[in-house]
Design brief:
Length: 1227
């Protein structure tokens, strides 16, 4: 793309590119390709964190086998990886992207084997030119031209334009092959859509996927006020099979979200400032120690310590820091126990609320929300939950970016072992858990709780009744399968069902009297507001845009901190012994609230404040206000949307395909398959009219970018032409007056255009992503789909059309406006000229992109340069260590779709482009396959919904190929100047019309199944669910011997033969204890990883096949681990060892605990972040914790599990204190 956008006239200069010139350009690219591939092969076995992190730094079930060390073994292993494994470990998005590249190979390989042997000889033999030289100087023949006056030489001699006029009958071969290309591409796309539907349906109906909240939850928008209550929605949607399980009404929490974002920024700023202060004090102490030792040596006339002695001291200090971190010792203040670190905490919270309904509500607020405190979205759903680490490390801190392992904590929680996994239901005698948000806070009323969705998890049950009884559990009546029938509202007067309002003669808009009244929702009371009648002013405010918002009731907050000694004025602070007050971290504060945060502080304009003192007060204030607001969500107005979870998956898909409301556009659109982590909560408050306006603005901006993008591109090109700039702008003449200045200007002019161009090209997908969010996308999937549409349109116009026409989009539009009838001749004249440019473009992009993808240049720079400079806090280092690269599919897919379209356009006009297409897609398939399997980890999966759109966008290449051939056929003449190919043009016109009709019919037929499941799958899915549940019960030891025998009769073995004789003993032990503890080593053994046909195959795919594979894989990994990688591998084992990260690892009761708050607004689930600062041996850190506690109880600060090494670098040995195991469970 960079080459295409950077110089649109290059297509003209490449016209007739010589074979020597092409080989020279190719050789240069091959050198770069070889260097990057060589570095990759050299480093991939040494830097596991960069080149194969998915072999250890992900949960067990997502880990892949380490690739062979030899290059040939690596290549072979890439081809042998089953597609099912890619689907299970990488997701449908990765699988379908790789399948798209594979599909392009399926299209172009047969085309190349048929088209090139036929058309290349027809084009070259007895053609207009036989010269492969770009200027014809090596040939005695005169310079040849086609009938449009274009010079033909170089690789053009193999193209369609080289056919002589007297050989015009040869164009019938081009026509026949073009029609065959259209038929072949249409047939392949048809087959791919069928495969897409089959694979997606299998994936949606797996037992594991059906357990997730996303499989049964629907987002309903544009709900009328009359239906905007939980009771009304339950009464409306319970007509679908299985009934309703949960209802979450959404509220406009924009104000609260703004507070949370501000708190996160201040928390990050304060954490960095506190860390800097502690490190500054330690440096001062080391400087003083060195000075004192120097004076002591001078007084005693002793020698300076040797290098070995210095290293020994550093080693001892590093060991002390390691011990301090691995013991997990430290002090903490402000922990309100708001973070349920595992599922047992969440269960205890729910049970405590039921036994003590008057206690402040904690619920599962922390649940699986995104980790706050500067971790960002990239951490969510990815980072495993380790409380304490159990592996050894080597002594190189840089290898792990500050990570050190920690052992068993003294006097704290023991590290989780294989026997600690226990399904524990709280007893009545258990005391209630501590309140979540401090004193003075109250539980919302039952009505308010129902509005926010909590009570929706306990339909038809009083608040103090357990979620599920023991009888139900032993009878295996799963919570997920509870059935609630359809309900109707009570009617006291039958006359209320009829409308007797008579229409007057001029009231043409009224229906005739005697009809039925508009449907009335359940629980509707005519005198209730907002469900009742509104005043005229309220009605107008609800209709007119920008006036529909409801005000937020103001609240007076108590003072959250103690002003006494807020700035350490007593002189007893530990930091004062080492650091002057003037050396403390400071920043400049804006004088006005409306001042943008990105503006730099200016002297004499912005006041200077102490960062720590100011941030402490602000963080305490925001923590207090946010927690109070979270306990009073009724202050915020309801939005006209809701998340509705059904008990059955088929009900959710039926609800999306049904006509729900009797008024058009009400309760629409409806979206299914929404992950709670994929919801863009910032856009949930966007109203319908705002979304329409935003969409119009976003489309206008994209169209403007497409049309006007040539202007900034041309500007970057003009910078390199200093002579022209000086001639155009005489005031720049001073650059040429001084020789030194001229040399500097020339050097800058050579580098600056490339930098500006790279920046402009990097900005395009960033701007597209911003516009997709600005448009009002409710989910990340919708956002990716929008970016895919916008970015493909931009790329196709800028990379193909603008380059082909060798002018900007504005110039093209101006020419067409002057003479629109000339579009065919202009298109026919320009398109063949750019063919040679795209030969170079595709092969160069393939070589550079594929080798760059393997080498992971960005990750190398980030890990070894950026992280060491900017990651100074324990949290930043932990995040950097545990965040794997991801892919933004919305901007990733269009680049390769554009390659396919360009190759299709020239597949008949310049047949040899098929060779370059095959090379391009082969290299990109290999590079991306390696990256998906061993490097990238995607926390959110769209379910492959981008694949059908990519296939539909590929039709663009077919259309432009047909249009180009139509134009060329119409312009071809015989030796007498008479149009000779009109018949071929007419046939292509018919083929184009048929192609359009075919695509329309294809999408009309397949469209409904791109997203929704047919009901024919439900019965089979239920059978797989039952088999899966039996396998899970057997695996977790929840069946007795009698049930095990029945289990055998149904085709599922009673025990898993591990091959080492331990299966019988393990099976008896599990059967003896019906609530046996979960073995994390077996956590990767997941039942039903794919849609299987029977209970027997379900078992074979889980307990049998996976168990044997796990044993072999673990043995293989242990044998291959090297000492230089032990420190890195310890991170993965520590973060994910002993924790269940998949929802199928949980019992139905535990799943229900999580699902209860799954779609509660993220602003209501955001928890108080921890100030995680390093501990030092001077006592500065401990003193800072104490002074923070004295200032306010609303700040959570801790220095547990961190320390400073001999070089005053922060090291850590655990996850942040505010990390929750529930964060890694994907719902």
């Amino acid at each position: 793309m960079a080459d295409a956008d950077g110089d649109t006239t290059k297509a003209v200069s490449d016209q007739g590119i010589s074979l020597v010139g092409f080989i020279t350009a190719l050789a240069t690219s091959l050198v770069v390709f070889g260097i990057q591939i060589g570095l990759f092969l050299l480093l991939r076995n040494k830097l596991a964190r960069i080149f194969k992190p998915k072999t250890y730094l992900v949960p067990e079930r997502e880990r892949t086998e380490p690739p062979p060390r030899s290059p040939w073994g690596l290549a072979i292993s890439l081809f042998r990886i089953p597609d099912r494994e890619i689907i299970n470990k990488c997701g449908l998005d990765s699988y379908f992207f790789l399948r798209y590249l594979q599909t392009m190979l399926v299209i172009f390989i047969p085309m190349a084997t048929i088209i090139i042997p036929i058309l290349v000889p027809l084009n070259y033999v007895d053609g207009r030119s036989h010269s492969f030289s770009s200027n014809g100087t090596n040939s005695t023949e005169p310079q040849a031209t086609d009938n449009l006056g274009r010079t033909i030489n170089g690789l053009d001699t193999l193209a369609m334009g080289n056919v002589k006029a007297e050989n015009h009958r040869r164009y019938w071969a081009h026509l026949v092959l073009a029609v065959l290309v259209v038929i072949w591409v249409c047939g392949v796309i048809f087959a791919e859509l069928r495969i897409y539907i089959k694979v997606r349906q299998d994936w949606l109906t797996t037992a594991e996927h059906r357990l997730r909240a996303s499989a049964t939850t629907v987002l309903v928008s544009s709900i009328p006020n009359k239906w905007l209550s939980e009771e009304a929605l339950r009464g409306l949607f319970d007509i679908f099979p299985g009934g309703i399980r949960n209802v979450w009404l959404t509220r406009d929490l924009t104000h609260l979200l703004d507070k949370i974002k501000k708190r996160d920024a201040i928390h990050k700023q304060l954490e960095e400032a506190q860390t800097d202060l502690i490190r500054m004090a330690k440096r001062k102490q080391l400087e003083k120690r060195e000075k004192d030792e120097k004076q002591a040596r001078k007084a005693s006339k002793s020698h300076r310590p040797t290098k070995g002695e210095k290293l020994e001291r550093q080693k001892q200090e590093d060991a002390a820091a390691k011990h301090q971190a691995e013991e997990g010792e430290g002090v903490s203040s402000g922990d309100q126990h708001a973070v349920p670190h595992d599922i047992h905490d969440a269960e205890d919270d729910i049970q405590g609320q039921k036994r003590h309904p008057d206690a402040p509500s904690k619920g599962v607020k922390a649940g699986f929300s995104k980790i706050t405190g500067g971790l960002g979205k990239g951490v969510d759903g990815f980072l495993g939950g380790a409380k304490y680490l159990t592996q050894g490390i080597d002594d190189q801190i840089e290898t792990t970016n500050g990570f050190v392992t920690i052992g068993m904590p003294q006097g704290g929680l023991a590290a989780r072992t294989s026997t600690d996994r226990r399904v524990r239901l709280a007893d009545d005698d258990d005391p209630p858990r501590p309140p979540t948000q401090g004193s003075g806070r109250f539980k919302q009323s039952e009505t308010e709780d129902r509005v926010m969705g909590s009570s929706g998890t306990r339909p038809n049950q009083p608040g103090n009744v357990s979620l599920i009884s023991d009888d139900e559990r032993h009878a295996k009546e799963s919570i997920e399968m509870r059935h609630f029938g359809n309900t109707t509202r009570k009617l006291d007067n039958m006359d209320e069902m009829y409308s007797n309002v008579k229409a007057r003669w001029y009231e043409f808009w009224r229906p005739p009297a005697g009809g039925f009244t508009s449907p009335v929702p359940q629980g509707f009371e005519s005198n209730e507001f907002p469900l009742g009648k509104k005043t005229l002013g309220q009605t107008l405010k609800g209709i007119i845009p920008f006036m529909a918002g409801e005000g937020i009731t103001p609240v007076e907050y108590a003072s959250p901190y103690n002003d006494e000694n807020a700035e350490d004025q007593d002189g007893t602070a530990e930091w004062e012994k080492w650091v002057k007050r003037s050396q403390r971290p400071t920043h400049r504060l804006a004088n006005f609230e409306w001042t943008p945060g990105w503006l730099p502080g200016l002297p004499f304009v912005n006041k200077k404040v102490d960062t720590i003192f100011w941030c402490r007060k602000e963080l305490a204030r925001l923590n207090h206000e946010i927690e109070m607001d979270q306990e009073n969500p009724e202050r915020y107005p309801l939005m006209k949307s809701a998340f509705i979870q059904f008990n059955h998956q088929v009900a959710a898909h039926m609800a999306c395909q049904s006509v729900i409301h009797h008024v058009p556009k009400h309760m629409a659109p409806r979206i299914v398959e929404i992950s709670p982590n994929d919801v863009i909560w910032d856009n949930m408050a966007v109203s319908w009219w705002s979304e329409w306006l935003r969409t119009a603005v976003a489309i206008a901006v994209v169209v403007g970018m497409i049309i006007l993008w040539a202007i900034p591109i041309a500007f970057t090109g003009s910078i390199s032409q200093l002579d022209s700039l000086i001639h155009t702008f005489p005031w720049l003449g001073f650059l040429a007056k001084n020789e030194t200045v001229w040399k500097v200007a020339t050097a800058v002019a050579g580098v600056l255009p490339a930098i500006l161009l790279a920046l402009l090209l990097w900005l395009v997908p960033v701007v597209m992503n911003f516009l997709a969010g600005f448009k009002g996308a409710k989910t990340g999937t919708q956002k990716a789909e929008t970016v895919q549409q916008f970015y493909f349109a931009f790329l196709f116009v800028q990379v193909f059309l603008v380059v082909s026409f060798a002018s900007g989009a504005v110039s093209i539009l101006e020419e067409l406006a002057k003479d629109f009838s000339s579009i065919t001749s202009k298109f026919a004249a320009k398109i063949p000229s750019a063919a040679n440019y795209f030969f170079s473009y595709m092969i160069l992009q393939a070589l550079s992109v594929s080798s760059g993808t393997l080498l992971q240049v960005g990750e190398l720079v980030s890990w070894y340069i950026v992280s060491r400079i900017f990651n100074n806090t324990a949290r930043n280092k932990w995040t950097s260590n545990t965040t794997l690269p991801s892919v933004k599919w919305g901007s990733y897919f269009p680049v390769y779709t554009n390659f396919a379209c360009i190759a299709l356009v020239y597949s008949v006009i310049a047949p040899i482009i098929s060779i370059f297409a095959i090379i391009t897609f082969s290299l990109l398939w290999i590079a991306n396959r390696y990256s998906m399997v061993y490097v990238n980890r995607l926390s959110i999966d769209t379910g492959g919904v981008l694949y059908p759109r990519a296939l539909n966008q590929t039709f663009t290449g077919l259309y432009f190929m047909e249009i180009a051939l139509i134009s060329l056929f119409f312009l071809q003449t015989d030796e007498n100047g008479v149009h000779a190919c009109t018949s071929q043009a007419i046939v292509m016109i018919v083929a184009t019309i048929l192609t359009v009709l075919y695509q329309l019919l294809l999408n009309m037929s397949f469209g409904p199944m791109f997203r929704y499941l047919p009901i024919t799958f439900e019965d089979e899915a239920v059978l797989r669910d039952e088999a899966f549940q039996r396998a899970q019960d057997h695996r977790l030891g929840l069946v007795d011997e009698d049930e095990t025998e029945a289990f055998d009769e149904e085709g599922l073995p009673s025990r898993h033969d591990s091959g080492d004789g331990s299966g019988d003993a393990q099976g008896k032990e599990m059967l003896d204890n019906k609530r046996s503890k979960f073995n994390p080593v077996k956590g990767i053994v997941h039942a039903g990883t794919w849609a299987v046909r029977s209970g027997k195959t379900t078992y074979n795919h889980t307990l049998g096949k996976a168990g044997k594979g796990i044993k072999a894989a673990a043995q293989f990994r242990n044998e291959r681990r090297q000492k230089d990688l032990e420190a890195q591998r310890a991170i993965g084992e520590a973060l994910y060892g002993g924790f269940h990260d998949e929802i199928e690892d949980l019992t139905p009761e535990e799943r229900d605990v999580l699902v209860q708050r799954a779609f509660v607004h993220s602003a209501l689930r955001a928890r108080r972040p921890t100030l995680w600062i390093p501990r030092d041996d001077l006592g500065v850190s401990d003193n800072e914790v104490m002074r923070t506690r004295e200032l306010s109880e609303h700040i959570w600060i801790s220095n547990e599990g961190t320390a400073l090494d001999s070089k005053v670098r922060v090291v850590y040995g655990r996850a942040p204190p505010d990390f929750s195991e529930l964060d890694i469970i994907q719902l």
